[in-house]
Amino acid sequence: SLPADALPPENILSCVFMLHYGKFDYFAGGDIQYNGRSSYAWRDIEAPVAEVVSDVEVMKACHHGTSNCNSDALLRKLNPEVMIANVWRDVQPNPATMDRMWGINGRCDIFTTNFADKNKQIFGTELSKFKSTGGHIVVKVVNQGAEYYVFVLDDNDQEYKVKSTYGPYKAQ
């Protein structure tokens, strides 16, 4: 029988997909992660994914932007113009993960949901680098994929009024 740490955790079994619509490309990696410290190479599921993906306009941050995801290799291959991080804990997104993103693509617009007050204190002045730190994030692709918009909706009630609009971004 295998040792417990050799069994696959459910996160690396996440569904990963890319969506292509005209020139617009979107990547969502679920909760996949990398772990260069593991003695089991198959646990670094981001590595083989990074080998088969290409540039995208929008990326949903893997595993809520926590510390063991969104590797340099994956971020370099995807090179998103927009990153969306669905966060719900005070360790999401992780500062080191965001530093990797900003180091690879300082022009990337980053939108998050439900940024915890504790994490806002950790990011301090870097918090201003985020386009949004709360609300529902909606991406609307128009003109057969030639351009897109990002809408931030107020999620404090069920009216979901638009708080802010970004774009148009041009798809490459």
What does the model show?
The protein has 172 residues and is an alpha/beta fold. The protein is built from 4 helices and 9 strands. It has helices at residues 46-52, 72-78, 95-104, 117-123; strands spanning 17-21, 24-28, 58-60, 82-86, 109-113, 130-132, 136-142, 147-153, 162-170. The strands form 2 sheets. Strands 1-2-3-4-5-6 form a 6-stranded mixed β-sheet, with no helix packed on it. Helix 1 (46-52) runs parallel beside helix 2 (72-78). The termini are far apart. The mean pLDDT is 92.
How is the biggest beta sheet arranged? 6 strands, mixed
Tell me the number of helical segments per DSSP (H or I, 4 or more residues long).
4
- The percentage helix is 10-25%
Tally of strands: 9
- Helices and strands, in order, run as EEHEHEHEHEEEE
Strand content: 25-35%
Q: What's the Cα radius of gyration?
A: 16 Å
| End-to-end separation | 49 Å
The dominant shape is globular
Q: Which secondary-structure class do the elements indicate? A: alpha/beta
Query: How do the strands of the widest beta sheet line up side by side?
Result: 1-2-3-4-5-6
Mean pLDDT: 92
Low-confidence stretches: none
Summarize the structure.
With 172 residues, this protein is of the alpha/beta class. Helices cover 18% and strands 28% of the residues.
Sum up the structure in keywords.
single chain; 172 residues; alpha/beta; 6-stranded mixed β-sheet; 3-stranded antiparallel β-sheet; 9 strands; 18% helix; globular
